[in-house]
Structures are given as C-alpha cells and as structure tokens.
Amino acid sequence: MTAMSAIDRPRRLRRQHEGPYLAAMMLCTIVLQRFALSFGGNSIPLILPVILVFIAVGYATRVLEFDRFRGILVAILCLTGLACSLAQIAVGAVPSIFSLGLLAVLYVPAAFRSSQGPAAVALVATVFTRLMVGAAIVALLQFGLQYVGLPNVDWIGTLLPTEFTVQGFSPNAFIVYGSELRRSNGVIFLEPSFLSMYLGLAILIGIRRRTHWAVLLILLAGMVPTLAGNGLVILIPGAILTFFSPIRRNLLALLPGLVAAVAAAAVTPLGRLYVGRSGEASNSTSSSSFRFVQPYTRFLPASFDSPFHTLFGHGSGTADDYLNGLGLSDITRATIPKILFEYGMAGAVGILGVICVLFALGLAGRPWLLGLAFAFLFLNASLLQAELVFCTVFWLNILPPPERASRYSAAHQPILQTRVVEPA
C-alpha cells in the first residue's frame, strides 16, 4: 500500500456513506413533514430536531462543512431579529420568544454546505425522483378511486392524535365547496400544494439529468389532482432557464407529459377548475385572494402605521395575533409582508436581505432556484415553516449542483448523465 492510498482511504471510506447520508436527510424533510412534537406548550415539527441532528452529525463526520460567509449571514439574520425584539420590549411590546427562537434555529442549516462529488449528488437526485414518482402514482390513485366510491381519507390525521401532527393545513380539501371530490396530497404531504411543489422540483431535476420521458409523464400527471399551482411556479421559470442553456434539448422529454396532463385535466373537473382559479384573486373570499392579495393589503398599511413600527415592526409572532383579531385567520402569512409587519425596515434589511443573498449564492447550476425563491418569498407562509425552509435550504445551499460537483470528481461524470430507463 502506498503512502498516497493510505492517506486517501479514510476519505474514500467516508464517501461510501456520503450519498446515502444526504439522501436520508432529504427524505426526512419530506416523509416526516406531517409529524409534530409538543414542546413547552407549543407544537414543533418533528423534522426540526431531526434535521438539526443531521446537520450536527454531518459536520462532525465532514459530510457537511461550515461556510464562514453563510455563517455570517445567518448570524446577521438572528441578531437582527434579536435587536428588533429588544427595541420592542423597550417600548412595552411583548414579542413572541418562541417565534424569535424558531427564526434563529430554522436558518442554522443555511450556514452549512456539502462539497460531495457527483456520485453523491446523483444518488440524492435518483432517490428523490423515485420517491416523487411513487407520490405521483399515489396522488392519481387517491383521486381516481373516488370515482369508484372509495373516499380520499387523510389516514395520518385520522390515525394519529392531533398533538403528533402538524396542524393548520388541509391535507385533502374538497376540490370546490359542495363537491364530493377531494384534492390529492400523496398521503405524506401537508397539503396538495406541497405535493405539487415537490413534483415541479422533481421534474426540473429529471430534465437536467435526462430522465426518461415516461418518468416525467408520471410526475406531470401527478400534479393534476393536486389542483395547486405551486408546481407550475417551480417548473415554468426553471424550464425557461433550461431553454436558454446548453441542455435545452432535454425539454423535449417533457412534451408527452404535457400532453397527458392536459388530457387528464380535460376529462376531469380539474381542468375547468384550474382555469377558473386563474382569475379568482379579485374575489376577496377566494383562496387566491388570501394568498396573493390580502397578505399585502392587510399587512403593509399596518406595517407603516408609526415611525417606530416602520423601523422595528410590531414584534415576532404578532402577525398571527393581528389577523386573528380581524377575524382573517385564513390569510397567508406571506414571507415579505410578515417580515415587514413583525420586524420593520430593519428586518427588511437584516432578515429579508439575508434570505435573498442566500438564495443568490445558490444560483449557479440550479434552474429550480427562481421558482423556489418566488414560492418562498411571495407564495407561501415560509418564514417560520420548517418544511419549506429545510426544503429550500437543502436544494439551494446544501446539495451541490451538478456543475460544481463535477469539478470534484470528473471520473464520476457519466453517473450524472445516466438515463432512467423505462422498465419493460
């Protein structure tokens, strides 16, 4: 054995486990998203302590490395929240310590990244794609079986006590009020919109890896019974970026799936509902208005109701109290207006600005960046939602894109370009 091989052996042995480790971390952000723990009278998502353990063990075993610049950004985010809270306490306000602590803890993983080779990246992408193919099939079955009299039952919510499940979501809401048909969530996802988002992400990853058209077809078809546009928010910007990249020909594999998805929407009530929902934002009682319009019309005027609130906000956790006091609890606590309302302009710089910089750092080689960033900032109540924070941080910061990974081990490049062959 040469001196060089003796030095390399520990690193090679670790690399045998790096791909599975990252894949397991990714799986936990998906499979555990509906489960919760009770802590100090508050409910916290189970994935919060689980992912923090993954980060700690990954750093200790050198699967993950601490990024000093990202660490500084996360520190700025935490200190901004603390400074605003201290200012609010000084004038007699009572910010939520739990919300402030959650803000600090949730973004710790953003300070870490992986520099693993393309074999590990390819394994994570393969596991994720296969999981989402399974979820798409389950979603299609959930919806289709309703036509033969089998109801779409929320088994997790039915079998587990409420203290062990994340509350405040509609896992299988009716496709429209008065209908007997329910939207699909693939059983394990918090809501159909979450399933749609992950399917859109899986499609873009599949396009980048030249996945077989039949796999993309299943993923696209699975988006239809969710009756949610989150997947399209991820998919459309990513497809546009891919079109202007050297791998634009990979988009051709998407055509059969698009045809099938349109056909599925045409022969079910979902197609009409998709079209109808595109213009419902003007209706103040619609879910689109609650998500796209009223978070801004309700929060922004109140965010600037005094010089102090303009600068430091009303306090962490006060957005919920404000909407509940107005009887408008259905309005989404979208990230941007929530930050402005709770932390003011200081939060716009030190919290929102940091999040935007973290997203920008992950731009290269990730066509899903724009869609994920848009959904995080404008579409969802993402700021303190562990499921969305960890998903976004993992795919934008922790996991290297294929281009970066290839610089570490060019010998594994064929693995990244392996096609998924349709079974006979």
From TrEMBL:
The lineage of its organism: Bacteria, Bacillati, Actinomycetota, Actinomycetes, Micrococcales. Keywords: Membrane, Transmembrane, Transmembrane helix. It comes from Frondihabitans australicus. Signal peptide: none annotated. The chain crosses the membrane at residues 21-40, 46-64, 71-90, 96-112, 119-145, 187-207, 214-245, 251-275, 343-364, 370-398. This is O-antigen ligase-like membrane protein.
